[in-house]
Amino acid sequence: MTNTVRSVRIIRVPTSDWFLLFVFLSVGCASLLPPERRVYPKNPVTLPEGMDIHQWIETKKNQYLERFWSDQVGESEYKFNYIRKNLTSFGSYVSCSAMIRNSSLKQLELYNLVSMVNYADYTKFMRKGGDLGPMNEKERTEILLPCIEEFLEPPQPKE
């Protein structure tokens, strides 16, 4: 039987450094904004005349073709993902996702809004990771809300 000696190295960290490490880990790990800040500020959204939520979703599918996906998750509730058409200044696409439901017969409510900066071309089937957001109010204002606003634009007549 062979005796094995293992070496154990003890590292001493001053108490003040533990505090800094704790603060760094606490602050460095950001999270999404709280749910009340991830709702569309202009809720409710009025449906076009004569449309219900299902017809409106179909209209959006036709309007955005390859840049819009949705799943029905309830009788009058959907989850959608929309990818902006234009690249960002650093060569990525911004997408936004949300839950949408009827708040009344003629109005919709968008909630649980999330944005993502994708590192891939949406026109290809290659999907790479991205940065999920918004992590702060600036990202909400500069990334998420413009994406939602673009998605909500009515279809434009073809020129």
Automatic annotation (TrEMBL):
Identification of the protein by name: DUF4296 domain-containing protein
Species this chain originates from: Leptospira mtsangambouensis
Organismal lineage: Bacteria, Pseudomonadati, Spirochaetota, Spirochaetia, Leptospirales
